[in-house]
C-alpha cells in the first residue's frame, strides 16, 4: 500500500510474519519514524526505534516481568479480583467501570506498588487522562506520510497545527505526571516503605541497568499505557463472548464447578487443571483482539527482497491481526474453545512462540517487539475470567417489552487499540451462597489493606518472601 511517500505492507499470513518479523528480526524490529516520537523525549518504548536505549528499556521488562516475576505478583491480582467480584455484586450494571478499575489497579500495583481502589482520584486519574490524550494525539498524521512536511511542522505554531498542539500538551502532562510518580517511588524507597514493583526494581538496580531517571519514569508509565486498556478491552470481549455463546459459558462453568467446587475461588495455580478455561482465555485473545493491527507497526531498517517483492527501507510492516486471527479458521466468528487442544494451551509461551504458523492468534504481536508484558497479561485475564465464571451468569439483556436487545457481534470502537462497541447485557450472581462467599472473601481481604486501600506492610511481608 502507498500512503503518501510511505510504503505500508499489511502482513496477512503467519508464514510471512515468521519469515520477516521473526527470521529477519534484525531488519524488522525497528519502529517507523513517526512524528509523535519527537515528543515525550522519544522515551516511549513502544515507539522508540531499535537502539541501545530501547534495548535497555526492553531488557527491564524481560528481567523484571518474566514468568518468575509475573508469578511473584500474583497476590496483587488475586486480591484485586476480589474487589472486582464484589463491585459487580454491588452494581452489576456498571461492570465496564469495575473491569477498568481492576485492570488499572493491577497495573498501578505491579508498576508502582500502590493500588487503585477508585479510578477518579489521585495519580491514577492523571494516568487515565494521559492515556486519553495519548490515544488521540498518537494517531497517524499527514506528516508521517509526507516526511518532507516536517520542516513546516517545525516552524508553524501549535494554533495552526492542532495535532502539534495536542502533542505539546501531552509532553507537558507527561513531564508533570511521570516525574511526580518517579519522585513518589524514590521517597518510598528511601523511607523503606516501597512495595515490590517494576519501578522499585528499576530504581534499586539503576546503576547496574544503566537507565537514567527519565528512562525509568517513562518505562513505568508507558507500561501502564500498554497494560491497562488492552487488558480491560480483552475482558470486555470475554463478557461479550459469554453473552453471545451461552453453551460455551455453561461448559466453562461445568468445568469450574467440577474442578474447583463452590467453596473456594479459582486461582492461577489451578490453570493446569482447567483446560477448557485455558481455551476460553486463548479464544478470547483470538476472537476479540484489542490491538487489531498489533498496535504499533514494525519498520524495515534496510531495503529487502522477499519472494521477489522489494521492501524498501523505512516501510511500515503492520500485522493484520484481525485477518490472521480469523482467515485460517472455519466459522471464525464463532467463539469456539474446542479449536485448542489441552496440550497446546498448557504451555503459556505457545501464544507468543517464534514458530508463527503454529500460533492461533497474533494478539501479542511478533518478533523482537512481541509484547513483553505477556505473562502478566495472561495472569490478569485468566484470574478474572475464571473467577467471573465462578461467580456470575452473563445473559442477553431484554427491553421493557421483554424482547432481546440485539448485539452487533463484530462491531468495535475506532482506533489502533479497540474494544467491542458498547452492548447491553445482564449479569447475575450464580447463587446466594456464592454472593455470600464473594462478600466474605473481599471483606477478609480488606484486613490486608490500609485506610487508603493499599496493602499493609504485614501483607507484603507475608506475600513476598
Ligand atoms: C491483553 C493484554 C495485552 C495485549 C493484547 C498486548 C498486546 C501488545 C502488542 C500487540 C504489542 C506490539 C507488539 C509488536 O509490535 O509486535 C505490545 C507491545 C507492548 N506491550 Fe503489550 N499487550 C498486553 C498487555 C501488556 C501488559 C500487561 C504490559 C506491561 C505490564 C505490556 C507492555 C507492553 C510494552 C512495554 C510493549 C512495547 C514493546 C516494544 O515496542 O518493544 N503489555 N503489546
Automatic annotation (TrEMBL):
Task: List ligand-binding residues for heme.
Answer: 371
* Keyword Metal-binding appears in the UniProt entry: yes
Q: Which domain of life does the UniProt lineage start with?
A: Eukaryota
Q: Which cofactor does it need?
A: heme
Q: Which UniProt keywords apply?
A: Heme, Iron, Metal-binding, Monooxygenase, Oxidoreductase
Pfam families documented for this protein: p450 (PF00067)
* Gene Ontology molecular function terms on file: heme binding; iron ion binding; monooxygenase activity; oxidoreductase activity, acting on paired donors, with incorporation or reduction of molecular oxygen
**What PROSITE patterns does this protein's entry cite?**
CYTOCHROME_P450 (PS00086)
Q: Which InterPro entries match?
A: Cyt_P450, Cyt_P450_CS, Cyt_P450_E_grp-I, Cyt_P450_sf, Cytochrome_P450_fung
Quote the PANTHER family the UniProt record gives: CYTOCHROME P450 MONOOXYGENASE ALNH-RELATED, P450, PUTATIVE (EUROFUNG)-RELATED-RELATED
Instruction: Identify its protein family.
Output: Belongs to the cytochrome P450 family.
Q: What is this protein called?
A: Cytochrome P450
Source organism per entry reads Clonostachys byssicola
Amino acid at each position: 500500500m502507498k500512503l503518501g511517500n510511505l510504503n505500508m505492507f499489511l502482513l496477512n499470513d503467519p508464514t510471512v510474519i515468521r519469515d520477516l518479523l521473526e527470521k529477519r528480526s534484525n531488519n524488522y524490529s525497528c519502529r517507523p519514524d513517526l512524528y509523535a516520537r519527537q515528543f515525550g523525549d522519544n522515551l516511549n518504548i513502544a515507539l522508540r526505534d531499535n537502539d541501545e536505549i530501547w534495548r535497555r528499556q526492553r531488557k527491564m521488562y524481560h528481567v523484571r516481568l518474566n514468568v518468575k516475576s509475573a508469578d511473584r505478583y500474583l497476590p496483587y491480582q488475586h486480591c484485586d479480583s476480589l474487589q472486582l467480584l464484589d463491585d459487580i455484586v454491588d452494581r452489576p450494571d456498571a461492570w465496564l467501570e469495575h473491569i477498568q478499575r481492576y485492570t488499572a489497579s493491577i497495573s498501578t500495583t505491579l508498576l508502582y506498588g500502590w493500588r487503585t481502589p477508585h479510578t477518579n482520584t489521585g495519580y491514577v486519574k492523571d494516568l487515565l487522562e494521559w492515556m486519553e490524550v495519548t490515544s488521540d494525539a498518537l494517531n497517524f498524521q499527514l506528516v508521517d506520510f509526507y516526511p518532507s512536511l516536517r520542516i513546516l511542522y517545525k516552524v508553524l505554531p501549535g494554533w495552526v497545527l492542532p495535532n502539534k498542539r495536542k502533542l505539546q500538551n501531552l509532553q507537558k502532562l507527561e513531564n508533570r505526571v511521570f516525574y511526580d510518580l518517579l519522585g513518589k517511588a524514590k521517597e518510598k524507597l528511601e523511607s523503606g516503605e516501597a512495595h515490590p514493583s517494576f519501578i522499585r526494581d528499576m530504581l534499586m538496580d539503576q546503576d547496574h541497568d544503566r537507565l537514567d531517571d527519565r528512562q525509568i519514569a517513562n518505562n513505568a508509565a508507558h507500561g501502564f499505557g500498554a497494560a491497562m486498556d488492552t487488558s480491560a478491552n480483552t475482558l470486555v470481549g470475554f463478557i461479550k463472548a459469554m453473552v453471545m455463546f451461552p453453551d460455551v459459558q455453561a461448559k466453562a462453568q461445568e468445568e469450574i464447578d467440577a474442578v474447583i467446587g463452590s467453596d473456594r475461588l479459582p486461582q492461577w495455580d489451578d490453570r493446569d487443571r482447567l483446560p477448557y478455561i485455558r481455551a476460553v482465555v486463548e479464544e478470547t485473545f483470538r476472537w476479540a483482539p484489542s490491538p487489531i493491527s498489533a498496535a504499533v507497526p514494525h519498520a524495515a531498517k534496510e531495503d529487502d527482497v522477499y519472494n521477489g517483492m522489494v521492501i524498501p527501507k523505512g516501510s511500515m510492516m503492520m500485522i493484520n491481526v484481525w485477518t490472521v486471527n480469523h482467515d485460517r479458521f472455519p466459522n471464525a466468528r464463532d467463539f469456539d474453545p474446542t479449536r485448542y487442544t489441552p496440550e497446546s494451551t498448557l504451555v503459556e509461551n505457545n501464544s507468543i512462540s517464534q514458530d508463527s504458523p503454529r500460533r492461533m492468534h497474533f494478539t501479542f504481536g511478533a518478533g523482537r517487539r512481541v509484547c513483553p508484558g505477556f505473562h502478566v497479561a495472561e495472569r490478569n485475564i485468566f484470574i478474572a475470567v475464571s473467577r467471573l465464571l465462578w461467580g456470575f451468569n452473563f445473559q442477553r439483556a431484554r427491553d421493557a417489552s421483554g424482547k432481546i436487545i440485539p448485539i452487533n457481534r463484530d462491531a468495535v470502537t475506532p482506533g489502533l487499540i479497540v474494544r467491542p462497541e458498547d452492548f447491553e447485557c445482564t449479569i447475575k450472581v450464580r447463587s446466594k451462597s456464592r454472593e455470600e462467599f464473594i462478600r466474605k472473601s473481599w471483606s477478609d481481604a480488606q484486613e490486608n489493606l490500609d485506610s487508603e486501600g493499599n496493602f499493609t506492610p504485614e501483607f507484603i511481608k507475608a506475600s513476598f518472601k
